[in-house]
Each structure stands twice: as structure tokens, then as C-alpha cells.
């Protein structure tokens, strides 16, 4: 039996729409076992068919390796909520790719896995950290994805998950196709500063660069609690952002006390929003055998 463990992600990191992301210590677990026919268990019945993203990605690897698609029993044990902005779709694609890689002992290198996953997901910002761990910067160059891992640890995080879903495809439609030149300049400065601050544990610079012009100004309208939570965090000098395409929001601080106080404030003011303490996953997707 092959077991694949994939971390959740917080894609975009506010100022890195479609290129930056962070791996979190919240996991989906997938098992692949030989079987006479394809069988899928452990997920909503609507996903128990050949359109399941794990199966789609597994098939993509078969095509890439020029081998036949085998039949197996796939079991999913999910901690990552569906359509919440924590990379549930990325986790399925990464599991299918890592599962097939293990099944065929193909020894695909990590960057090829990122490229295959990105071809299916459409953008690399969630699949790259799910595969590589920590934080990463990724983009397409010719027909391959280039990723740079930004090592980071020591941050305390809180993911705040409203009790409604936002479908990623729909959340992409609210974003305009262009922005002004001066805003684009600031965006570049913010993104570069943010990644260095994340690595250097520099909370002041992280806060000063956590201001986006590409997607948050448009998507905040889809998340009714955003403005209030944003104000709470920024008044206390630590950053928060919309995780992936939302509606989950994420705050981090180098001071654990800030995150504990935010948790208590959330419990009091937004009891319907599920909150979960997180730290940064260090190693990305992992596979073991039984
Ligand atoms: N546990 C799961 N089991 C099966 N399919 C899943 C699971 N989690 C996510 N998916 C797939 O991912 C899709 C959600 O993708 P998306 O809206 O992009 O959400 P997210 O922001 O969480 O990635 C679902 O419609 C389904 O196809
Ligand atoms: N850049 C994408 C990221 C989507 O991440 P997800 O976790 O919501 O799947 C976007 O913002 O649409």
C-alpha cells in the first residue's frame, strides 16, 4: 500500500497572486492499494468517480510515462476543507502525481512534479509549496515551472475558516484583467520585501509589505468578515491575508501571544468561524509504504 501525505497551503500570500505560497502543517492523507477495479472511498460521493482530481493527476502521470492506467483502491482521509482556500484541489493533484510516481517507481524529480501539477491546476502557487514545503516563488518559463524555495520557520499562524465555500473558478472571475503601472511597481516591491521578511522573521517589514493590488481589493467583498478581522490584526501590527481564493483568512506573527489573542477574539466575535492554529510545514509531500 502506498500512502501519500500532502500539506495544506496558503496560496498568494496576499501580494503574490498566482506565484507565492506557503505550506501548512494541516494534511490530507491518501492511500493507493491494488484492486480489480477503480474504487474511491473517504470523500463525498460526488467525487467518487473518474473525475476525482487524484485520479485525473494519476492518469496524467501515466500519459507522461507512457504506461497503462492501473486499477486501485484510493482512500482519502482529509483534514483540508474543500473549496476553502487552503489548497484542497492542489492536495488532490499532488497526491495523484506523487502516488503514480511511487506506484511506477518513476523517480520524477520534484520540479517535474510541480510542472505536471501546475499544468492541471493552471497556476503554481498552491501546488509548489504542497510539493516542496516551506514557502515558494513559482512561475512558468517556457513549458516548465521554475520554483525557488524560501526557507522560513518560527512563525505562529491561525487559519480562520468561515462556514461557507468560495469556488476558486468563481473567485478568479472577480479580478480585473489589468492594474495601473504605479500599483504594479508597488506590488513588485511588496512581494520582494514580503518574502525576505518571511525568511528573516521581520514582522515589521512583513506588515509593511502586506498590501495587495491584484486580488484582495476585489475578493474581500466575497468575505463579509474580512474588513473587521483585517483591522484587528493591522491595529496590533501583525499581518493577515485571504488564503488562496478564500474565504479562509490567515494571520501570522512571530509572537505566539498575538495569535492566541486573535484566537480568543475570534471565539468571542465570530463563533461560527472555525479557527485552527498552524505552523509552516517544512518538507512538503511525503510518501510511505505499508
Ligand atoms: N477531500 C477531497 N476529496 C475529493 N476531491 C476533493 C477533495 N478536496 C478537494 N477536492 C477537489 O477539489 C475541488 C475544490 O477545488 P477549489 O474550489 O479550487 O478549492 P480549494 O480552494 O480548496 O483548492 C473539489 O471540487 C474537488 O474536485
Ligand atoms: N492563485 C490562486 C490560488 C488558489 O488557491 P486555493 O487554495 O484557493 O486553491 C487564486 O487565487 O485563484
UniProtKB/TrEMBL annotation:
Keywords: Amino-acid biosynthesis, ATP-binding, Cytoplasm, Kinase, Nucleotide-binding, Threonine biosynthesis, Transferase. It holds the Pfam family GHMP_kinases_C. ATP binds at residues 81-91. The keyword Ribosomal protein does not apply. Its main location: cytoplasm. It is found in: Cytoplasm. The keyword Nucleotide-binding applies. Residues 196-271 form the GHMP kinase C-terminal domain. Pathway: Amino-acid biosynthesis; L-threonine biosynthesis; L-threonine from L-aspartate: step 4/5. Its EC number is 2.7.1.39. NCBIfam families: thrB. Catalyzes the ATP-dependent phosphorylation of L-homoserine to L-homoserine phosphate. This is Homoserine kinase.
